[in-house]
Amino acid sequence: MDKINKRILLALEQDGRISNSELADKIGLSASACLRRVQELERTGVIKGYRAIIDDKVMDRGLTVFATVALSDHQKKSQRQFEKAMLKAEQVRECHNVTGSFEYILRIEVADLQTYKNFHTDVLGTVPLVNGITSYISMEKVKDERS
């Protein structure tokens, strides 16, 4: 990963819709050299894709909750079972297996507190082996480099 590729990646992180000619000008390359580099970054999986960032409120995701989840069993089979359930739960936007006094941290996005209560009770609370759930309600998003 050379300095030019890093500059390309930083520019694309800021604006994934920048035209190749604008990107080339910004980086100081010819358009064809820039395109070759971007295509190689895509081909090798460094660039995993491009996405639209949509206003959460429009998608009825106005409330963000971070939840820690402890399991009663620490075997790999149990972790996979929990992870499979989280992959199916559309409210769970991120699921991280972590070290410490609990196994998972979830980022959950829902419309409001009542919707979260329903998710907590009817989805998360029904997953086998869940031994503890601690919820943290986000009051304000101060920084989010994904948006």
Give a structural overview.
- The protein is of the alpha+beta class.
- The protein folds into two domains: 3-43, Winged helix-like DNA-binding domain superfamily/Winged helix DNA-binding domain (Arc Repressor Mutant, subunit A, Orthogonal Bundle), CATH 1.10.10.10; 63-137, Alpha-Beta Plaits, CATH 3.30.70.
- It has helices spanning 3-14, 20-27, 31-43, 76-88, 113-122, and strands at 63-71, 92-97, 104-110, 130-137.
- A four-stranded antiparallel sheet has the order 2-3-1-4.
- It is elongated, with a radius of gyration of 20 Å.
Secondary structure elements and their pairing?
Layout: H1 3-14, H2 20-27, H3 31-43, E1 63-71, H4 76-88, E2 92-97, E3 104-110, H5 113-122, E4 130-137
Antiparallel strand pairs: 1-3, 1-4, 2-3
Helix pairs in contact: 2-3
Spatial extent as radius of gyration: 20 Å
Text of the CATH class of the largest domain: Alpha Beta
Write the CATH fold name of the largest domain.
Answer: Alpha-Beta Plaits
Q: Spatial order of the strands in the main sheet?
A: 2-3-1-4
How many β-strands, per DSSP? 4
Average pLDDT over all residues = 95
Q: What level of helicity do the residues show?
A: 25-40%
Residue share in β-strands? 15-25%
Shape: elongated
- What is the overall number of helices? 5
Helix-strand category: alpha+beta
* Helix-strand topology string: HHHEHEEHE
